[in-house]
Design a protein that fits this description.
mainly alpha, about 160 residues, about 70% helix, single chain
């Protein structure tokens, strides 16, 4: 297994992660605008990116495993780029380290953006629930009744909207 093929796969992984980061940034804007259709499109795009990243990651692991075996190293179940750097020739170690650093930076930025998006969606859901609570009040009696017949007394639901209108 050649190092060039592994480097090519790592570059593709970095490009895909950057592209996914762009989708996440756009998703933040869609969330701010409360565009549900746009959010669905962003989620589909994210799923496509993630599937491609998973395929490339599996390919990278196979390539690194083959390379390590060819160099006489005993690879782990999921070989890392750090293990590859240790086994790489001296002239390629610096380039691999820089590539690893860039990939880690993109992944960290993705994590931060996803955390932000998750918090924004959670706050939107809280707002929706509060609004629903205000419009549709809860029944006042939440205790068990003392009715011996086994049936709870029917409570009349109150609503601020006239459903027959």
């Amino acid at each position: 297994m050649s190092m060039d093929k592994i480097v090519s796969t790592l570059e593709k992984l970095e490009r895909l992660h950057r592209s996914l980061l762009d989708v996440c940034v756009k998703k933040t804007e869609v969330i701010k605008e409360s565009d549900i259709e746009g959010l669905n499109n962003m989620l589909k795009s994210e799923q496509t990116h993630i599937a491609a990243i998973e395929r490339l990651e599996q390919q990278r692991q196979v390539e690194v495993t083959d390379y390590l075996r060819a160099k006489g190293f005993a690879p782990t179940e999921a070989p890392t780029v750090a293990q590859l750097i240790e086994a790489a020739p001296t002239d390629q170690k610096e380039a691999l380290q820089q590539m690893r650093t860039r990939l880690i930076a993109v992944i960290d930025e993705l994590k931060k953006r996803n955390d932000l998006n998750q918090k924004m969606i959670f706050q939107s859901l809280q707002f929706v629930n509060i609004t629903l609570d205000l419009v549709q009040p809860r029944p006042e009696q939440m205790n068990y009744s003392s009715d011996i017949g086994g049936q709870a007394p029917q409570q009349q639901k109150k609503s601020y909207f006239d459903s027959q209108a």
